Amino acid sequence: MRFGIYGCRHAHIAEFVDEMLKLGHEFVGIYETELDIAKGMAEKYRVPLFDRGEDLFKLKPDVIGTSAVNNRKIDIVELCNQQGIHVMADKPIVTSREGYARLEKVIRQGRIQVGMMLTERFNPPIYALWKMIREGRLGQVVSFTIMKPHKLLEKKRAPWHFSKEENGGIAIDLLIHDIDLLRWFTGSELDSCSGYIKKTAYPQYETFYDSVNAVIKMKNGVVATLEANWWMPDSYFTFGDGRIFCVGTQGRVEVRTTGDCQAKGEPFALLIRDTETYIRCEDVAVPTTLIQDFINRIEGRKDVIISGEDVLMSSLAAIEIDESLEEVRLC
């Protein structure tokens, strides 16, 4: 397949490019008018950089990847739908109810496949936890706690990152991964949510909130606490310190989704069932990759890890969580 990038405002999209190339697909070019990220990518991969989107489309790509400004991604999805081009977007793919309605229309139409970079499902210890739940090794699932502190690295962020309208805000931008995992782990949809979104600092960014804490109930009764913030110290060895705690009636699991210094950054999981202490879980091979899973969907396979319905329902759940939050402003 031939693929291109339409909108390049976050470096996450390099993961899409690298995986497509590894799978043997042809990278035909990039369209972007803001050159801070796109110029370097075009040089690295030795592809043309266009300042008009139609020039990229003239090369007849089969798949488009996008990391455009978050609230503009839906425009690209609709444009690709008109052209009959499949699209993979960095998360989040939409930031509002209006964007969700437009996304739903495209996905229900079924002309193209729409993907979102929900990379956590392909993280080996997270996949191992899903498999343990599915096999009943933890008994009945009682609750989850998911923590996602991130580095902000303010000086390296583009202005749109600090705009609620353009970025979507911390709940939609960061909790999209967590609510997607909850849907996957439980096989259930969001039932209710309450919580707080807090502005502790950065008064120069009027609509930028730096932390979120939410309590979720899924329709099957599983309860979860979600926490995300932009307060991970810059000195930490990687972008953040992700943790998932799963409580079952017959065992507990902790997943360190970004690893730790002792593990040299490799994610891992700890399990306790009938032992005196936690033991490290055996590695489990994920049967496919994010992009191969998407290609499988394009080719009509049904046994995929992420479906179009997942993209749609996880996006809706993130928006519903965001709408439920009470604001706390300290500056």
UniProtKB/TrEMBL annotation:
<dbReference type="InterPro" id="IPR036291">
    <property type="entry name" value="NAD(P)-bd_dom_sf"/>
</dbReference>
<feature type="domain" description="Gfo/Idh/MocA-like oxidoreductase N-terminal">
    <location>
        <begin position="2"/>
        <end position="107"/>
    </location>
</feature>
<dbReference type="InterPro" id="IPR000683">
    <property type="entry name" value="Gfo/Idh/MocA-like_OxRdtase_N"/>
</dbReference>
<dbReference type="InterPro" id="IPR051450">
    <property type="entry name" value="Gfo/Idh/MocA_Oxidoreductases"/>
</dbReference>
<dbReference type="InterPro" id="IPR055170">
    <property type="entry name" value="GFO_IDH_MocA-like_dom"/>
</dbReference>
<feature type="domain" description="GFO/IDH/MocA-like oxidoreductase">
    <location>
        <begin position="129"/>
        <end position="254"/>
    </location>
</feature>
<dbReference type="GO" id="GO:0000166">
    <property type="term" value="F:nucleotide binding"/>
</dbReference>
<dbReference type="Pfam" id="PF01408">
    <property type="entry name" value="GFO_IDH_MocA"/>
</dbReference>
<protein>
    <submittedName>
        <fullName>Predicted dehydrogenase</fullName>
    </submittedName>
</protein>
<dbReference type="Pfam" id="PF22725">
    <property type="entry name" value="GFO_IDH_MocA_C3"/>
</dbReference>
